[in-house]
Design brief:
Blueprint: E1 8-13, H1 18-25, E2 31-37, H2 43-50, E3 55-57, H3 60-63, H4 66-80, E4 84-87, H5 96-101, E5 106-110, H6 122-133, E6 140-147, E7 157-164, H7 171-194, E8 198-201, E9 204-207, H8 209-218
Parallel strand pairs: 1-2, 1-4, 2-3, 4-5
Antiparallel strand pairs: 5-6, 6-7, 8-9
């Protein structure tokens, strides 16, 4: 069962939903009120249902078109009016008018240290850069949680977690280490947003002194010269 919290979250997934599972398991200051998917076969839906969370798949074939499928998803989100929309391996691009309506209330996790390697195949591209350069500047990889804007993986960065690329790494080993980081970073960010220790103002993330200290303790990276919340 989810903890009783006033801060409500809807999670969007397209596949296995491992980040969704970590969000469910580590919920402290938020309550997940729905898991939605554009893929009727997404394994993450089953996990959500077993956790007692409403999980709904929106079938493109039944909807009639991609546009209508997206509209069904958007309409459901607007009806339940969550405090935050969380994209956890969601493989559809959100329409700009929807993003505008929920500006500052949509977050995504991306498997790279943005702004490097936006889009797909991030682990492959990170390894290629590492082997081509052979310098320490290319030796880091990781994940980023960011607010969603009208671009692709271009919204304001909230926090990052990084790991070292090893010469022996292949895509699978590197992806596994990054996924472990994602499972730590994403719930931490969502809990902090729910507790109002991270907020969205003037198209950037701002942080409480508490969360700045926690990030340092956890080895997470916040944007340089991050604005700090003022007491009161």
């Amino acid at each position: 069962m989810q903890p009783a919290r006033n801060f409500t979250v809807v999670v969007l997934i397209s596949g296995r939903g491992s980040n969704c599972q970590s969000l469910i398991r580590q919920a402290e200051d938020y309550s997940i009120i729905g898991v939605l998917s554009n893929n009727v076969d997404a394994p993450g839906l089953k996990y959500a249902r077993e956790a007692g969370i409403e999980a709904i798949a929106f079938d493109r074939k039944t909807a009639g078109s991609l546009v209508q499928q997206k509209q069904q998803i958007y309409s459901h989100i607007e009806a339940v009016a969550p405090s935050l929309i969380v994209l956890a391996g969601y493989m559809q691009i959100l329409e700009s008018d929807f993003v505008e309506r929920f500006e500052g209330k949509i977050v995504n996790i991306h498997p790279s240290l943005l702004p490097r390697f936006k889009g797909l195949d991030t682990h492959k591209r990170a390894l290629q850069a590492f082997h081509q350069a052979g310098v320490s500047a290319e030796a880091k990889h990781g994940c980023t949680v960011h607010y969603v804007d009208w671009g692709v993986d271009s919204g304001p960065i909230i926090a990052q977690a990084r790991c070292r690329i090893m010469p022996s790494d292949g895509e699978e080993t590197l992806a596994a280490r990054v996924l472990d980081l994602e499972h730590r970073l994403f719930p931490w960010v969502v809990n902090a947003i729910a507790a109002n220790d991270i907020a969205y103002r003037d198209r950037q993330a701002i942080f409480s002194p508490k969360v700045i200290a926690e990030a340092k303790d956890n080895g997470f990276l916040l944007p340089e010269r991050s604005p700090v919340m003022q007491p009161g």
